[in-house]
Design a protein that fits this description.
single chain; 260 residues; alpha/beta; six-stranded mixed sheet; 9 helices; 12 strands; binds zinc ion
Length: 260
């Protein structure tokens, strides 16, 4: 089976549409979402509906939690965006109560972790599934943190949250897709790995193109692998939409151009 993995869409509809169109060209049987569907960007309602429609399931990210429940530990810009996002859902609930009810059911039941065999899926890390960040620098600076996280993994864990695409190995290395042959990581049955598909709607690794990955478990030899993908989208369209909304700070648009 070929499974597309998307994460951290952050209400960026232009990016999500480009990624979904690209996934359609890669013979995937299903799409999974690792959370942060909403928050920051200009099109939360449409993004939530597209994920509900196209994904087999989605996880709950810290921004989904912030909008639906309480924006804890958010900076002012993120908090303001969370309240604005919540108002968009509430407004649509008044205007289109039937479709909104379906959407609230989907959002209200987002799980914090999923397990399929010895593959685990969380937004943050296995020990703090919604909020903990695992940064590439941690592979060098915090080997104890990385070891503590790997202790909770049987084989492979898929995470989002940092918006940085790549693979952590349990010998404390981080591999960017550019450092892998064919941007592809062969999963060794004997070694553990943590894989981040990158962010659809707000990449922070210096490459402004939308990111996603494909987990391919179809190899007849039992070997699995992860392919990393990037796709161009209309960044200026999203920047303009953000700039036109007073309560979304201009920085949230500007950062998309530089992927920071
Ligand atoms: Zn995020």
């Amino acid at each position: 089976m070929r499974t597309a993995l998307i994460s951290d869409i952050h209400s960026n509809l232009s990016a999500l549409e480009a990624v979904l169109a690209e996934i359609d060209k890669h013979s995937c049987q299903r799409i999974l979402c690792l959370g942060d569907i909403i928050g920051y960007g200009p099109n939360p309602v449409q993004c939530a509906d597209a994920v509900a429609e196209r994904c087999e399931w989605s996880l709950l990210g810290n921004h989904d939690f912030g909008v639906l429940y309480e924006p804890t530990n958010f900076n002012t810009i993120a908090e303001q965006a969370a309240y604005w996002t919540r108002e968009q859902f509430e407004r649509d609930s008044r205007e289109n109560p039937d479709s909104a009810r379906k959407r609230w059911n989907f959002l209200g039941l987002l799980p914090v972790r999923k397990r399929e065999g010895d593959y685990l899926f969380v937004h943050g890390t296995p020990r703090k599934p919604i909020n903990e960040y695992l940064f590439p620098e941690d592979a060098i600076n915090s080997p104890a943190k990385l070891a503590g996280i790997f202790d909770r993994i049987d084989r492979v864990c898929f995470v989002g949250h940092t918006h940085v695409q790549g693979v952590f190995t349990d010998d404390s290395e981080f591999w960017k897709p550019d450092e892998l042959t064919d941007h592809s990581y062969p999963i060794d049955p004997q070694t553990k790995a943590i894989v981040n598909p990158g962010s659809v709607g707000q990449p922070r690794d210096g490459d402004p193109r939308a990111a996603f990955a494909i987990l391919d478990t179809s190899g007849g030899d039992g070997k699995h692998r992860v392919e990393f993908h990037r796709v161009e989208y209309d960044i200026e369209d999203t920047v303009e939409r953000i700039h036109s909304i007073d309560r979304l700070n201009d920085f949230l648009g500007d950062r998309l151009r530089e992927a920071r």
